Amino acid sequence: MPRQDPYRQFRFRVEIGSIKLGFSECTFADTTTDPVEYREGDELPIFRKLSGLTKYGNITLKWGITDNMELFNWRQQIIDKGAENNRKDMSIILINEAGEDKARWEITRAWPSKYDPVDFNAKGNEVAIETLEIVHEGFKRVS
User: Fold this and answer.
1) Structurally, how many domains does the chain consist of?
2) Threshold 0.90, pTM exceeds
């Protein structure tokens, strides 16, 4: 069987509803399920570990500022009208060296909770970077 090298982390694509932009960084969320300790009164003095609530961490996107205002406008909709009617499903797709989609995570009911505009510095020559933090109600790896 031929060797299978792991995929590289720098080739990815993010789709947010109909928004398809390039991002320089995507800090993906983690998922944790809290353990709940439980013990009946007549059991040995050892706790059983039951599964509690599952939590999903936030997703952070960073990109070089352009004329495109779609992500800022989405954030402004949350400020103006709230999240309930402005949630979007999104996908994070890992791409191999040949440009083929190799892994895909589907994120449900996402909305931007924080927008960090670019910091300016007249002494530097770096690309101006914007940041958007996205909360959501869960994700699944589908491929």
Assistant:
1) 1
2) no
